[in-house]
Amino acid sequence: MRILLITMPWASIDMPSIQLGILKSVVDEKYSNTNVSCEILYANVLWAEYIYQKSNGDIDRAYNYALISEADFAYGVGDWIFTKAFYGKEYRRKEYVEFVLEEKALTKEEMEVIEWMYEEAPNFIEWLMKEYINQEYDLIGFTSSFMQNIPSLATAKSIKEKYPNTKIAFGGANCDDKQGEALHKNYEYIDFVMRGEGEVSFPQLVEALLTNQEKVKYKNISGLCYRENGVSKFNKMLTVPIDFNSVPFPWYDNYFELIHSLDVSENIRPSLILETSRGCWWGAKHQCTFCGLNGSYIGFRSQPAERAFDMITSMVNKFKTVDIFMVDNILDIKYMKELLPKIKKLDWDLHIFYEVKANLMEDQIKLFHESGVKKIQPGIENLSSPVLKIMDKGITGIQNVQLLKFCEQYSITVTWNILYGFPGEKWEFYDLESMKLLNHIQPPGGAVRISLERFSPYFNKPEMGLRVLEPARFYKLVYDLPETELMDIAYIFESNKAGLTENQADILRNVINNWQMLYTNTEFYYRYNMNGELYFFDTRGVKDEKVTYWKDPLHIEVFKELNTVKNIKALKNRLHAKFSDDRINNGYLEEFLNTKSKEGYFYKEEDKYLSLAIPYDSQRIRSNRYLEFMREEVLQ
Predict the structure, then answer these.
(1) In this structure, are residues 536 and 526 in contact, taking their beta carbons and an 8 Å threshold?
(2) pLDDT of 149-202, one tens digit each?
(3) What gap in Å lies between CA 66 and CA 83, rounded to an integer?
(4) Element (H, E) at 570
């Protein structure tokens, strides 16, 4: 039995497919020493090479591929590019182009590149079939997430036309729950759709095909969509997770072989993509109101630290790659004691990305730096405590600022945006003046109105304030399906607008844009001179003086104590343990804090304070995200 697993555009070309890498390992482990073979085809990488060659290098990964794969899911750009290849003719082209330009999702120049890709996509599918899918397989599987549906459907259709006996299976995030059912019902050349975790169900499907007992065994495969007498059948999905510790390490050999053989490889920065946990331990208790990630099962489970360590070390040794992207939705907090200290001892200069919760303390951020966790996505989402409460984030705005300060101090790159558009959100919740004190720490990528996502609390409970009006507008410009089917296939939806108006959001964006421009050349640090005086150097423009000194021991101790967030009561208790000073209780302290907050030394939220200056370190590395952004703007 011959199996081929395919990942289409617009999966990242900087890393292999963990989904397919795991499935191949599962099949190889179960069917070793048999006539069952399993291959992986990185059609996403081949598409990047194809457009690079066809454009004589003008269209490359560095800008054009990433523009689509990383930024434009809300407008379905990646899916639309393959609609001509899928339908064999133009489908609502004029309407789609007008929609994208009207939404200002792309510039006219960018849209010209997109339309060029649109014309090339049919030729690419034809070339792919000729050069890579040029023999019959028993089973071909597609992994589909975000904008991979239409590229995968176009390729699956071509395969079925050329090899009608080949079974076609789809899986991945786009196939969860009703989405998978809709795909199966509406596209008859998809024989199977696998919903949920595939490490158990996929080998069960392989076994059913091998033993020619399909009709009996299909019924016993959890989450499987199949046909019986031409009618789609949908098995119930698992309601409990699989044994995560039994999942083998992913197989990535041919990804690294492929990228080193292509001309476009000069624009590829290969990373290992690994997984140490699934689900979200915070979301299992308090799912963020806007979040639809994890689909139909959010329960958290993680690998034992020893196994995670073995996976990391063996994969780094095998592929000689120190950049690691952890696909976990949230870091297991136990790893702070059980995993990261072991990685730290390796002294391997790793560059690891993790998603984390934002309520981390300085010692934990320092451990990140020492163990190689150099980039995080902490789910900051906002700096307003009232808005964060609406989101059910379980954190305050000033705690988020504290995290950003520590990350700046320890050279940890932070990926974050400000989200808005929540029911109950008010403009007065936003303190723009306090935001202007933060130009020396990493700014957000932008301000983004939330989308109504399938599986989110807002989607499941319209009484919370957001109502589904219809699928996001791009779906009907990409899929030739009735709206009832689009409602099932869609992941994001149009809804009533809540929270900030767009005029208010534009004011917020202006503050963020200014923050981004100032960040790379702004400093606010402190150091102590030989007399123990506190010296500040400040280029934020909050006050006229760039250099100031504090000599008063009480003032200096207040600054030290407010390295972490404290309210007035906690601060006074700490000061009383060190000083016998009447100023602590006679109102002087409150007046001092208020004055110095206005001068930008402290960040204030109600009765809580946080010092903002960062200790001077000549070796500190500033995040270069905005330097790269500005360089690209100049080059364009």
Answers:
(1) yes
(2) 999 999 999 999 999 999 999 999 999 999 999 999 999 999 999 999 999 999
(3) 19
(4) helix 568-576
